[in-house]
Amino acid sequence: MSAAVTSADDRAVVRTLVSLKVRLLRNGLRRSPGRAAGYLIGTCLGLLFGVSAAAGLVVLHGHDGAADAAVVLTAGLAVCWTAMPLFFFAGDESADPTRLTMLPLRPQALLRGTLFGSLVGPGPLIGLLMLAGAAVAAGRGAASAVVAVLAVPLTLLLLIALTRSVAAANARLLSSRRGKDFAIFGGLLFAVLVQIGNLGMQSAVRGPDQSLDLSVLHPYAAVVRWIPPVSAIDAVRSAGDGAYLVAALQLALAGGLLAVLLRWWLRSLQSLMVSGDASTLVETSSVHHGRAARGWRLLPAGRVGTVAQRHLRYAWREPRAKAAIFTGVGMTGVISALSVVQGWGSVYVIGIGGLMLGLQAGNLFGMDGSGFWMVAAGLSTRQDARDELRGRVFAVLSYSVVVLLVVGPVLAAVTGRWAELAPALGVAFAALGTSLGLGSVISVYAPFALPADGNPMRSAAPGQNGVVMLNAFGSMLGVSLGCAPVGILLGVLLISHSPAWPVLPIGVLYGAATALLGIRVASAGLIKRLPEILARVIER
Predict the structure, then answer these.
(1) What pTM does this model have?
(2) Contact yes or no for 326/188 (Cβ under 8 A)
(3) For 297-323, what is the HEC assignment?
(4) What is the pLDDT of residues 233-254, one digit of tens each?
(5) How far apart are CA 174 and CA 164, in angstroms?
(6) Would you call 417 helix, strand, or coil by DSSP?
(7) Could you tell me which of 433, 394, 387 has the C-alpha nearest to residue 526?
(8) Residue 343, number of CB atoms within 10 A of its CB
(9) Judging by beta carbons within 10 Å of its beta carbon (0-12, 13-18, 19+), is residue 4 exposed, middle or buried?
């Protein structure tokens, strides 16, 4: 009798969790017209992408290499679904099992309810469309159709179990501050790798005569076709070729992985519901603090070094500020990589990196928030303001110079244009120094507050979007005009076939001079505009 009651309770929990997922989707559309419109537009674009990918695979049916394309697409889906909880964990409330750990739920019922609930939404539908297209591309004959009826749902369940088991195993890490930091960095890195892989695949699939050549996919498909969940889709091809035993083995591999993932998922849920959270323990090691203190010895002494240390700590602990830094560094790497991949590689590309990195100084006070009251209380003279700005600029300079000195020689080595390294660094340092100087001025005359709700999709508090636009476009336009003398000098030297290496010392001196000039101008305005800066920065 108790077993029957338990089974009935578990079924009720499963129904509740599925209905909860439906309510989350429905209530998300009711929060605001803007969010509803964004969700609908994103869903339509996702469905359009899924339908387009499925249609493209269906068109490949019967062509040589169609099965290889289906296998490679399925492998890409598996990688994306595995990485999704690591980079976008906070975006889906139903992916966080720690929200339900205080409820009297059995782990088995929680697993089944979450699994079925995960089938609700546009994501599984898009995945189902693409997997169905892959099965059609790989199939041939009635046997393939029969296997596809089993393989497509099995692969979809495998993808869902894969992403949920990864999320459950890393739930406490991903819900912590360090986990969110990892998600920001990992998401940018993943986007960079995907873009580079996409460009490489496009150039490889297109033959010399710009015709579609799928034969290049065969070596990759030969490797991944036996790895589940890809093996389930490749079983459709095996069945069409008459290799029924091979198809059965490939389906068995996929089924075995599904059983392993469900077991891993269940054990993670049991651990979350009965074990304590070690992430709340306080670090008391004096050795740890001693090492951390020694790590700041490279900073200048006095107030400038203290301000730089504080600014770097804020940037490391504030996810939005960290995302901005990683975006600047990532864009520098992406532009440099694209220049090499697409054949227009030049060491002078790092000049754009100097601009992107220097733009981090465009809102030096925004991430202070209400803490800027304490900073403002210590600014009584122009020298205090100058030291405050110097410390913040030095913090941005500390990682920007390192990035440029690393990317520049790498570009020179890859392109073989070592003669361009010195003038390119000169242009980059001139752009960096001009950006820092102009950013100091804009930080005083056009500051804005970061949103208090921590929403990464919002870059400013309500009502300050105009200031953000002025800040961004003013910085880019001002830096472009400010670096014109160095650019003109470089152009004259190149046209006259004169050695261009003098651009390096001139660019360094020019960047340092413009940075110091900007700090000097901004320090005078900082004292006069403190009340207005306080009102804008602390406005939430």
Answers:
(1) 0.54
(2) yes
(3) CCCCCHHHHHHHHHHHHHHHHCHHHHH
(4) 999 999 988 889 999 999 999 9
(5) 13
(6) coil
(7) 387
(8) 7
(9) exposed
